[in-house]
Amino acid sequence: MIELVDIAYVRSGAADLAGAVRFATEVVGLEHVDGPADDTEPGVAHLRADGRHHCLAFVAGASGVIASAFAVADPGALALAETELETRGFTVRRGDPAEARSRRVSEFVAFDDPFGNRIELVVGQQTLARPVRYGRSAGITEFGHLCLDAPDVAEAHRFWSTTFNARASDWIGDAACLMRIDEVHHKLAVFRGDEPGLCHVNFQVAELDDVFRNWHHLQDRGVVIEMGPGRHPQSGAVFLYFLGPEGLTYEYSYGVRRITDEAAWRPRFFDPAEPGSIDMWLGPTQKPLTQPQLLPEGVRS
Prior knowledge:
By secondary structure, the protein is α+β, with helices and mostly antiparallel strands.
């Protein structure tokens, strides 16, 4: 079994690179890392939320998610992961040094999960010592989780829990499985969708008030609010989902549950048709808009 230690980043194609960066900094509040002192790479923009060099990278080209990445412990773990995946029948590609540099990692491998989502496993993700220079005061504290789509959520859980160390924290019928790789209630979620893609990226904020201040900030700028503010009964987090350029859905959340007694926790099962099963505050709910997975062919990696 391959042990994931954290989420790493999302790499996303942007037809309007400048517009995607402007929204991520001025509206979401992320830092645009690239500059004269940061070895600027033409056609790629790195966005930062916490100690990582970046958690989101936009690549000039067709709109769509290019890859979702997870970290493993060290080069030995990466080599073992590569062998394990190949043994299980996956085609695995090892990134070259230029690709690794673009991702600000020492090494990485890439493969497609059984549903067509491009996954990258990385080691040596770069950390920046200086404080984050947020694009605005949104209260962001960290890159919280990422969510993928798959046509069969149970099969997706089987893949992530047998190939990797992901454990189901809670289920929302056959519509979603929320999975943890550490104490956080979920760092990975899989939602039911007809095609592979990135359902959303999540950023944690410091205070409950930040969620509501951000809500007003988004409303004032005419941003499409997809769902919230509300509170998820599974993680206990107060949430706000909103749509950015290139079809990318963002989420702010505050107060996510931590599962500290691993032996005692048992996944719970929520009926999505039951009022309050997605939003305890009984607000309107809908599945966030998914950014489609780009095919590897012809896509700048």
